[in-house]
């Protein structure tokens, strides 16, 4: 394992800048906020650790990129920021997210709540779910996994046409695997920063996706069936677990972060690190490092304390009894656990951050 370490001066400059205007902007932040952000360059800090590399396949090694500090983010003429009349993030569900309607509805509501806390100050709105057929996208069976895949680029075009007037961005989410072009095996997601649209798949986050017993496998498409969307009727969706929800929250907020103009982080362990494979994605934390947190705060204008408090609420079980939420639907009364076990460590970390800010 290799550790990526930067000097105190390098991290301080990446966070604050040496530009007098940006230094002055930083000094106007609340004292508690500065105390937390300064943890980035304290030699003995334990809230924000260094990036660790575990193999040559990890993102930083296989995809060399120039790092982006706060000054570069702030000065980027192409980055998008919410305006007074465009402060909504829209989520469009494509296909079912759960094996019943009520589970699908609850899952997307959990994602909405988390997203609204993460991008605190913006409104997250849910569009009516649509079947794959509504997108008119191309699809195929993956030769390696034998599962159905839908064309990411075609879905982006569909989302661009649906983007509401008050939208900062619109993102599609699906439990169906994605591919960007015929020559590619798969892609977790794809976005157009210019158009403010993105599509992300959570299919590979299920515990059994790579198993030979995966129920989403299909042998092959019949001739002439490449335009018959009936193949997606009652298509398999994995069980919604705490780990699946955590992975989904990571992907959703990471990719929307890119739409705000945040590039892959190379400073500290951070949600905005790139990931080349599932193991690396699982190592990536849910939190933003101080440098990326300042970028997002600059774009949205939130108070860090209020945002952290909203995040704590977003990952707590909302039910009266531990782990169980009773919902009534046409399907009868069902007990739906909000799967938050995988978020416990993250919840404890936020509470530590709040202690630093409020000290």
TrEMBL record:
Membrane-spanning residues: none
Cofactor: Zn(2+)
Pfam families membership: Peptidase_M54 (PF07998)
Keywords, sorted A to Z: Hydrolase, Metal-binding, Metalloprotease, Protease, Zinc
GO molecular function annotation: metal ion binding; metallopeptidase activity
Statement: the UniProt record of this protein carries the keyword Protease: yes
Chain segments annotated as coiled-coil in the UniProt record: none
GO biological process: proteolysis
Function description: Probable zinc metalloprotease.
Recorded family membership: Belongs to the peptidase M54 family.
Protein name (database record): Archaemetzincin-2
Record lineage: Eukaryota, Metazoa, Chordata, Craniata, Vertebrata
